[in-house]
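I have been asked to look over a protein record a colleague put together. What it holds is a sequence and that sequence's fold in token form. Please read both lines and tell me whether the tokens look consistent with the sequence. I do not need a full report, just your reasoning and any doubts. This is what I was given:
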Amino acid sequence: MPRCHCLAFAALLVVLPALSVFADKPAGLPGFRDLARKVRPAVVNLSVVKNVTMGVTDPFMDQFLGRFFRQPQGKPEEPFKQHSLGSGVIVDAMGGYVLTNNHVVEGADAITVKLADKREFPGVVVGRDPKTDLAVVKIKGASDLSALAFGDSDGVEVGDWVLAVGSPFGLEQTVSHGIISAQGRVIGDGPYDDFLQTDAPINPGNSGGPLVDLNGTIIGINTAISTQSGGSEGVGFAIPSNLARDIYRQLVSQGKVVRGWLGISIQDLDPSLALRFGMSKDAKGVLVADVLDQGPAKTAGLRSGDVITGLDGKAVNTTQELQRRVAMTPLGGKIVLSVWRNTQNTSIPVKVGAMDQSEPEGAQDSDQSSAAPKLGLEVRSMNAEESVRFAGERGVVVAKVDPASPAEDAGIEVGDLILEVGRSQVANPAEMARLIGHLKAEEGVVIRVRRDGRSLYLSLQVPANQ
């Protein structure tokens, strides 16, 4: 045993000179001690209690009694308290406002806010926004608070140093460091995904805590991880501070978020569709699949088939980007859309509405049927039930799609309502057959369909052997 101690000590002597080289922090390597001291007082631990009621049953008795009674006889429902932990960051010391994740406080019946100095206070939810997973909690009865300022997440670049602070696994005031690994990440969390990716270790309990830059300003709110193990694997995501700041201000001022709305159905522009609409194969933009009646876009003159390429002079490349930028436009605010229409560029000013309007309803019916052999699909007129489901629309219903056909390759599905073929409206199956009959071998065509309440453009290619 003594020999083992000596060997360990000898190894330590070898390592110590190497460690002493870094004690003075060579130029270019950041030191995080002062930054951690500045940031930690503004980071809080959130202890959340939810009152949950669950029916407790005896499986054996339920099975036995079920033979003689219509309903299994279970024990009365028993309430219990569900506890969970999360993090938050104070962004207003005077008001006592804490910014955190919606999923941390959703459904909370009681919230305890624990400060870095161990003081504890009750908290109350001021407002929540599930679409961005953000929420604001107000600390009741607290004073002498520390707060962090919002930084500019648009100014962050890949490779920048960051610190993540929070309570992973309930371990309060934990600080981890890393870099910005990527920007603009879409992880399928919602329509406003625009995450900063970081390799700073983030674990369960970090949710709602801040991601800060070397100035100690908030550049993100930690919210999610990508993991196979349940713990950090170096792929964490934070809501950008510029988005978080806008949501925070609305939640504090009005308790909810009112988003801008254009009243259009949109889809990303792929190379095939770009060519069909007279653009270059590598063109970027957002294709307008449908324009709702009585919406801001309809009033402004936007049409289905328009390709939105910019907003207020800044390029728009994806549907996610357009949705985010329109959503954060104040109600009644004016924007100018750059639009590609009929092989020409045009500008269309739009007065943004609120995202709470719906499409008016109507009905239309027909009684014809036909096939479109060149594309490998069969269509028919709408029945009474479909006339109600596709209220206010004119078109034909896809009754059959042949395997390995151009229709299947393009993504057409049975039950789709075909509205247009090559930008021409389809009134009935006979009209559909006429339009398809004009197509030549190897010719491409754009078909607009209605599916699951939204319109969609699909690009089809007629095979060479037709």
Q: What stands out?
A: Residues 274 and 281 are 6 Å apart (CA to CA). The domain at 369-461 is CATH 2.30.42.10 (Pdz3 Domain).
